[in-house]
Design goal:
7-stranded mixed β-sheet, 202 residues, Rossmann fold, 26% strand
């Protein structure tokens, strides 16, 4: 994982940050957006990057914990998005050690994160994700299929295996949707995504 974080740090140029922050959350979350809370909620944005999504959730009135382990991206996000209802945290999967053990969130999101974990780390991460999702809350993640960017290694990911380990942690599958990438460059190299949404039922 450390080499992947270093790859993101090296890539965090002004151009990269502008491109990342310029993507539209409405387009990114098109296939699951109807599952987001329609009342004020506690949101954990894991792998928050530049805070693009965290800021979007904050504008909707939610309280957001933006978790980002790459200092260059985190500091860019703090400078770009200064809403008082965004709190930043330096932490990482699979353990999320800096997140309080009693913290609970109505919505937990992992956008373009899961593919950076090995199967072993996914098995560690899923129970932790389930633990911070409130009963009746929602966990949403996107799974990348295809090659990764240079210096930002990805691992093959099985949607069905992900559903199984989530089920064992008390997370019921609410949606599974294949989607094309919103970025033309990714489309050109055959990258596509699977969106998974889970409800915490126990």
């Amino acid at each position: 994982m450390q080499d992947i974080l270093e790859g993101y740090a090296a890539a965090a140029t002004a151009e990269f940050i502008a491109a990342y922050d310029g993507l539209t959350p409405e387009d990114i979350y098109e296939h699951v957006i109807d599952l987001f809370p329609n009342r004020k909620a506690q949101v954990a944005d894991i792998g928050a990057g530049t805070g693009r999504d965290a800021a979007w959730f904050a504008r909707k009135g939610h309280d957001v914990l933006a978790i980002e382990p790459v200092r260059e991206l985190r500091e860019a996000g703090q400078a770009l998005h200064t809403a008082e209802n965004i709190r930043w945290l330096d932490d990482r999967l699979p353990h999320l050690n800096a997140v309080p053990s009693n913290a609970l969130f109505d919505l937990v999101t992992l956008c373009a994160v899961w593919q950076h974990l090995t199967d072993e780390n996914r098995a560690i991460a899923m129970p932790r994700l389930a633990a911070i999702t409130a009963l009746g809350g929602t966990l949403i993640m996107s799974l990348r299929h295809g090659s990764g960017a240079l210096g930002r290694r990805v691992f093959p990911v099985s949607p069905d295996q992900t559903v199984e380990i989530a089920r064992a942690c008390g997370l019921r599958l609410a949606r599974k949707q294949k989607a094309k990438s919103v970025q033309a460059g990714n489309q050109a190299i055959g990258v596509f995504w699977t969106w998974l949404a889970f409800e915490k039922v126990r």
